[in-house]
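Model it.
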Amino acid sequence: MTEISRRSLLGATVLAASTGIFAKAGAAIDVTATRKPNILFILADDLGYADLSCYGRRDFSTPVLDGLARQGMRFTQAYANSAVCSATRVALMTGRYQNRLPIGLEEPLARRNVGLPPSHPTLPSLLKNAGYGTALIGKWHLGALPEFDPLKSGYDHFWGFRGGALDYFTHKIAAHPDLWDDSRAVEAEGYLTDLLADKAIEMIGSYARSPAPFFISLHFNAPHWPWEGPDDRAEADRVDQSGKPMALFHTDGGSAKTYAQMVQRMDYQIGRILKQLEELGMSQDTIVVFTSDNGGERYSDTWPFTGRKTELLEGGLRIPAILRWPRLVTPGQTSDQVTVTMDWLPTLLAAAGAEQDPAYPSDGENLLPILRAPARTHERTLAWRYLNLNQEACRKGDWKYLKILENTFLFHVTEDPMERANLKDRFPEKYAELRAAYQAWNSQMLPLDYEASTSGFTGSELPDHFGVTNRVMFKHEAAPGH
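Modeled.
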C-alpha cells in the first residue's frame, strides 16, 4: 500500500494553520541526560471515559489505576483518533491521522486484506532504531498475517491475537483460533486478560536482564465483548456452540456486573505488572501510559457525555488517559490540555531521545511541556470523520462542529459536554469557521471509501437507538454517485 501523494504546499500550509500540528513544542527539554526510559504502553479496548473510579465510575472501583493516576498525571480532555478500534490503532502506530492510509478508512478492519504497510515508520520501529527492545502483547488488528505482521512493523516479539476481538476462554474469533506467538499459532489455557498480564510480566523479566531499554505495547482485549468475566467459562462455551456468525458480538449476554468484573480483573492484573516493575527496581525509569482506543460500548459509563463507540459524540471519542513517569512528572497532577491518540508517538519519541522520520511527520503534538507544567494549555484543532451515518466532527478550542446524516450542530463542549444546545444559528460565524476547518482538514486526507467496512448500532440491537435503521455492518451502502 502507498500513502496518499502530498498535496500542494499551499494546502499543507492551510492544514498546519488550522490544526497547529507542526508546532513541536518541547524539543529543547533534555530528559535523556541519564538513561533512556523504558516504556510500558497499556491500551484498554472500548473502555469508556468514566469506567475508572478516578474518572467518576460510581458502582465499582479501580484501585490500581486510581493509584497510577495519583502517582502521575491524569488527562481530562483526551480524545481517541477514531470512535472505533483499528482506525485509532493506525494513528497510535504512525502518529498521524489514520485517514492518510487505506487501512485507516476501515471502521473497523473486518474482511478486506488491507493493513498497516510494513514500510511505514511506526512508534515501535522508530524506538527500535533508537536501541529499544520492542514487544506487542495482545491485540494487533492492523492486518492479517503473514503480509501484515507486527514483526514487520517494528516489534521484535508478538504474543497475542491479530483480529478485532477474541473469546476470553476459547481464544477464537468466528469459530477460528487466533492466538499467536510471533508468527506461530499457539494454544493456551486460561482467561485472556490473565494470560496477557502473565506474558507482560515474563517479558519485563526478560528485558530486566538486558542493558537496552524496552518498549512494551500491552493491548488488552478487555473490556471489549464478548461479555465474559473470569468465572464465565460456561458462557464462553455457550457462545462458542451457538453456531451464530455474530455470536461473539454477544447481543444476548452481559450485564453491568459482568462488565465490572472484566474491568476490575484488568485493573488487578495491571497491579501485578506494576509490582513486577517495582520489585525489579524499574519503576523510576519506566514511563507507564494507560488509555483506551475509543469511547465506551454497551455497558460502559461515558458520563458526563452522550454517545458511545462508533459515534462522534463526545462519549464515542473521549477516553481516560494516565501517564506515570517519576523522573519528570510530579505525582497527583491533572491536565486539561486537549490531547489525542496520535500525540503519543511524538511524545514518547521525544522522551526516548529518538527521531521521527522526516518523510512522515506526526500530526500529533509532543506533550512533554505539559508533563512538566500541567497548568499550561493551548488551543488545538482536531477533526474526525466516520462513514456510518456520514458523521463529521471538528473540535477547535471550546467549540465543536458535528454532523450526523444531514443534521449539523455547533456545541460549546466545555460548557455543554452532553452536546444538547445547538448553537449554530446563534453563532453562525463560529459555525462557519469550524466547518471550514473540517473541510480544510478533510481535503488533505484520503477520500472516503464506500467499500470500506463500517459499523454502528441500530434500534434492533439497542433500544435507545430506536430511530437508527440504516447501518450496514461490513459494507456501507454506496452514496449517490458512488
